[in-house]
Write a structure and sequence with these properties.
about 80 residues; mainly alpha; 3 helices; about 0% strand
Length: about 80
């Protein structure tokens, strides 16, 4: 396993240590690894969202599909953006 050095502000280190002390993580390293996993998930979700945007830009919804989407969203209580 490789090791890296990271510079953190006193405030960032304090928050990290507080999370470890609260039992959220076993160690600083575990907390950093968890943060990396969260970042990977966010980056993946952003790529998926961009793929959808690109696909719908090339093949937009038909009027019927749009109405169906809006009706389903209304039933679910969601807003269409």
């Amino acid at each position: 396993m490789s090791q890296i050095a990271v510079r953190l502000s006193d405030e960032e280190l304090s928050r990290l240590d507080s999370a470890v002390a609260a039992g959220s993580f076993r160690s600083r390293a575990d907390a950093v690894r968890a943060g990396i996993r969260l970042l990977e998930g966010e980056l993946f979700e952003a790529r998926v969202a961009e793929s959808y945007r690109a696909a719908y830009a090339t093949a937009p919804l038909t009027a019927d599909e749009q109405r169906t989407l809006e009706a389903a969203a209304a039933l679910a209580g969601d807003a269409i953006v």
